[in-house]
Structures are given as structure tokens and as C-alpha cells.
Design brief:
By secondary structure, this protein is an alpha/beta fold. The protein contains 14 helices and 18 strands. Helix 1 crosses helix 4 and helix 6 runs parallel beside helix 12. The protein is globular, with a radius of gyration of 26 Å.
Length: 535
């Protein structure tokens, strides 16, 4: 709620003398006239200094808080940019506007308009792998409670059928095809798995270039502290280290999956890092990721912060928290163990509970957006797909439709369900908007899905595209409204399917041949031209 503030002051500016009292509702806005930079900033600095002397102690004390100081400095720059002054108006009429505008800008920092954002990304979690999505065995009370306190999505998609592609789309806010070389998960030991990725690997350039990312850079420019803990999988070379992308803190592993206890992958590379340096830790990987995430929360609870919790779970090797003595080798690394898989899901849920507990203990739950989602569909034979067809690695629903839960107290209706089709990079645009970050519209491909549900907007139809490559096999798909076209090309073989998802979400009966398929094929072909990589 806006608050009334009265600011008495006697002061001089230039050769004029003013005495009086100004007042107004915090949160007022005004339309500025612009002066030349030198004059504008000089005058704005003077008003900034005057106003700061008379702000309430609670607001003025922000000058002594490290995190809030950055936010205050940002607002000061905004105040300079939008400084309202014109010599045709007497100072006694202009000054109240200036003070009110300044108070509005400062109090946005004081009142925490920018929420903290906690983004929890599970690895290979199937659409039906949670209790609230219908798992018949696994108990996930903490994540289920998160859904009860927020919104659960039924038609959310990952940007890719594997992990590296989706993570690329999330950090860039765009289709991963635009980057080049990242349409397939990076192979263990930094191996390219299709022609474009092989070419880049030979040039020691296989990974996500830092200049292509908008997260965390744009968030940091908006005053956020940003930390990532867990799986990276966007390049082994030092130039692709998360710290080179601008993260303030990183602990995790560079590859796609590691032994949950000795934290080594099946290559000979050491992949566990803290910042830019290799480290050794003892403990179960899921719990180690959570431990560092909780520490980050407590260190930065004065906010605003962005926390990216990038779990390995429930990706293979299938090891539960009590399996420290279980023999896991390169030969059985991917062996399916259904009972252990359930144990891993339940341990992941327990650690999400620990994370939520830390948010509550820090007293920031009401101003923290929590998002839980998966990077792609589940691993075939292990994950529960909730009746969807196929699994990870394909563009059938089981490979790309995943759980998504968002909690934002006071903004998103508790216990709600959204059937809006959405995709990973929609979260990117949402986070940037929440952070008031400045990113050119042409650098983003998604929609603001959080604003969509928070505003109770009507669901809308849209076009979504996928393409994943591995070896000489390419999976592609387009969804337009409820129509979905899928294509698989492998060597000289070509298979196609078309479905109406409004009546056949399990994709059990292809509608081909069908004249409407030509429209979908053209949409897909035009999209492939539009996202062609320049790298």
C-alpha cells in the first residue's frame, strides 16, 4: 500500500531560497522532460542528497546495506535518467514532483518490489513422477504442498528432449538452435554427438558462449545476486564455466551426470568445481547441492537474489542416499533400478522441503517466487510418464512434456491449475520481467507465463517447435494450437505422425495422411530457417 510522506526542508539551489513542506503518496509516477546529461545529473544528485536527509530512518538505512546499496544506486541512476525539470516551471512546483518521484524509486527498493527467485530444475523427471501428477508409489509431500500453495501446469514443455538443449534455451531465453552445437546433450568428456557439435568440439568451442546468455547478466544488472548449484552441462572448457557467464557463486559439476557419492563421471576428467577451481566433497550429490543452495539463501536473504538449483536427481546412475557402498561402474552406469528410482524421487522431495524450510526460516517466503520443473521427459523404463507416449530423447509427449509448479504468495492463486501450453524459455522472460531487467525484446522468444497465471488471463493458442539431433537421427515436432506434427529422420528412413492433443494426449492414433499436415510441415520448415545458427 502507498504511504503518505511529508518532507520539510529549507535549502538553497543556485541563488534561490526555498522553504516549505512537500508531501505525496509514495508510488506516484511522472512523465519527465529531459535535459542535457551534465545538468540533469547535477540537479538530480542535489535532490537525491536533499531527499535522503529527510527520508525515514528505515528507508535511509538502506545506504548501509550492501545488497540494498546496489539497488539504491540503481534507483538513483533511474532518478537521474527521468529527472523532471523545465525552466518554465517555478522550482516550488517542480520540487514536490522530484521528491515524490525519488521516494517512489527508493521505496521500491525498501519494500522489496523485486522478488527473490528460486528456480529448481530436476533432471530427467517424468511427467508422472510426482504425487501431484499421479505417481502410484512415490511420496512427494513437499513438492505436492508447493503445488497446493501455487499453480500446477498440465501442458508445460521442455525446450528439448535432452538436458543441454533445454538449459541453453533457459539461459538464453531463445530456441537453442540459434546457438549452434547444442541440440543434443554434450557427451561425457566433452564429446560432440552430431556433425555440428563434433565440429565445435574439435575447435574447442563446444558449449554455451557467455555472450549468448541473458541469465544471469540481465538479472545482475537489475540488482540481483545470482548463484547456480548443481549440474551445468553447457561446456567443459574454462571459457564456458558458469563464472564466465557472470554468476556470483557456483558449486557443481561441468558434465551431464556423476556418481552420486564420489562425484566423478565415466570420463577421466575432474568435473566437480566451486567457482573456477576443482574441489572434492564428501556426501550425496542431491544433498550437497541443497546444502550450498541453503547457504546462499541465508547469505543473501536481504535480497534480491536469483537461485538456480540444478539437481542431478533422478538422472542415472540410480543411487539412493543409502547406496554409498553400491558398486556402480561404466558397465552398469545406466542400469534401471525401479525401487532405487523411487527412493531418489523421495529424497529429492525431502531436499526441496529443506530448501523451502530455509526460505521460511529466512523470513522471505512472501517475497520469493519458487519454481519447480524438469529439463526434459523421464528416462525410459525408470520414470513414470503419466500415460504419455515414449520418453526422453523423443519429441513425443513423454519426451518433452514435464511437470511445472510455481508458487508466488499473494500473486498466484493457491491450489490452481493451468492448462496453458508453455515452454522453458517462457520462464526466462518471466524472471526477467519480475526482476525489472532490461533485455531487448528481439533477444527473447518466450511469453511471460508467470504474469499470465498471476493475472488470470485466458489461455491462448500458440506455435511451439522442437528439434533434437544425435548422430544421424533427428527428432522434430511442431505444436500449433492442439495439432501436433512429429517427424523422425534416421539415415534414409523417415517417419511422421500427426495428432490432435485435445482428444488424444497419449498420441495413440496418428491422423496421417491428413491435408492439415502440410500446414504444420511448412510451419516447421519456416521455423528451421528462422533459427538457423550463425556460429
Amino acid at each position: 500500500m502507498p504511504a503518505w510522506v511529508t518532507v520539510p526542508r529549507t535549502f538553497t539551489t543556485g541563488n534561490r531560497y526555498y522553504r516549505g513542506q512537500t508531501g505525496g503518496f509514495l508510488g506516484s509516477t511522472f512523465d519527465p522532460f529531459l535535459l542535457n546529461e551534465e545538468k540533469k545529473n547535477s540537479l538530480a544528485d542535489r535532490i537525491f542528497q536533499i531527499a535522503a536527509l529527510d527520508l525515514p530512518d528505515a528507508v535511509n538505512s538502506l545506504r548501509f546495506s550492501g545488497r540494498r546499496q546496489q539497488g539504491l544506486n540503481k534507483r538513483r541512476r533511474q532518478f537521474q535518467t527521468f529527472f523532471f525539470f523545465d525552466m518554465c516551471f517555478p522550482m516550488k512546483r517542480t520540487l514536490p514532483c522530484l521528491l515524490l518521484a525519488f521516494c517512489s524509486l527508493v521505496c521500491r527498493v525498501a519494500n522489496g518490489d523485486q522478488p527473490n527467485i528460486v528456480f529448481v530444475l530436476a533432471d530427467d523427471l517424468g511427467y508422472g513422477d510426482l504425487g501431484c501428477y499421479g505417481h502410484p508409489v512415490a511420496r512427494t509431500p513437499n513438492i505436492d504442498q508447493l503445488a497446493q500453495e501455487g499453480v500446477r501446469f498440465t501442458q508445460h514443455y521442455s525446450n528439448g528432449p535432452e538436458c543441454s538443449p533445454t538449459r541453453t534455451a533457459f539461459l538464453t531465453g531463445r530456441y537453442q538452435q540459434r546457438v549452434g552445437g547444442l541440440e543434443c546433450a554434450l557427451g561425457t568428456g566433452n564429446v560432440g554427438r552430431y556433425d555440428d557439435a563434433i565440429r565445435l568440439a574439435k575447435a574447442r568451442d563446444l558449449g554455451l558462449p557467455a555472450d549468448r546468455t541473458v541469465i544471469p547478466g540481465a538479472l545482475k544488472a537489475s540488482g540481483y545476486t545470482c548463484g547456480v548449484f548443481g549440474k551445468w552441462h553447457l561446456g567443459y572448457e574454462p571459457k564456458f564455466n558458469p563464472m564466465e557467464h557472470g554468476w556470483d557463486a557456483f558449486f557443481g559439476y561441468m558434465g551431464g551426470n556423476v556418481h552420486y557419492f564420489n562425484h566423478r563421471e565415466t570420463s577421466d576428467l575432474h568435473v566437480l568445481f566451486k567457482g573456477r577451481l576443482p574441489v572434492h566433497r564428501e556426501g550425496y550429490m542431491t544433498e550437497l547441492i541443497t546444502n550450498d543452495s541453503i547457504e546462499f539463501i541465508h547469505q543473501n536473504k536481504s535480497g534480491p537474489f536469483f537461485l538456480y538449483v540444478s539437481h542431478e536427481c533422478p538422472h542415472f546412475p540410480f543411487q539412493g542416499p543409502g547406496d554409498s557402498k553400491k558398486v556402480v561402474t561404466a558397465e552398469n552406469w545406466m542400469d534401471i533400478d525401479p525401487d532405487t528410482y523411487v527412493e531418489m524421487l523421495q529424497n529429492l522431495d525431502a531436499d526441496v522441503g529443506r530448501l523451502l524450510g530455509a526460505i521460511n526460516d529466512a523470513g522471505i517466503a512472501d517475497n520469493t517466487v519458487v519454481v519447480f520443473v524438469s529439463d526434459n521427459g523421464g528416462f525410459a523404463g525408470a520414470a513414470h510418464m503419466g500415460g504419455l507416449r515414449e520418453a526422453k530423447g523423443t519429441t513425443f509427449e513423454g519426451g518433452i512434456r514435464v511437470p511445472l509448479i510455481i508458487r508466488w504468495p499473494g500473486h498466484i492463486k493457491p491450489g490452481s491449475t493451468s492448462h496453458q501450453p508453455c515452454i522453458t524459455f517462457d520462464l526466462t522472460r518471466s524472471f526477467l520481467r519480475l526482476a525489472e531487467a532490461n533485455v531487448a525484446a528481439e533477444r527473447l522468444d518466450g511469453h511471460d507465463i508467470i504474469k499470465h497465471v498471476a493475472s488470470n488471463r485466458n489461455d491462448f493458442e500458440r506455435n511451439l517447435f522442437w528439434r533434437g539431433r544425435r548422430g544421424d537421427r533427428t527428432w522434430s515436432a511442431v505444436r500449433s494450437g492442439n495439432r501436433k506434427y512429429i517427424r523422425k529422420v534416421e539415415a534414409d528412413a523417415r517417419d511422421e505422425w500427426m495428432f490432435d492433443l485435445s482428444t488424444d494426449q497419449t498420441e495413440s492414433a496418428s491422423l496421417l495422411p491428413n491435408n492439415e499436415a502440410d500446414d504444420l510441415r511448412k510451419l516447421l520448415a519456416d521455423w528451421e530457417i528462422e533459427v538457423k545458427s550463425s556460429r
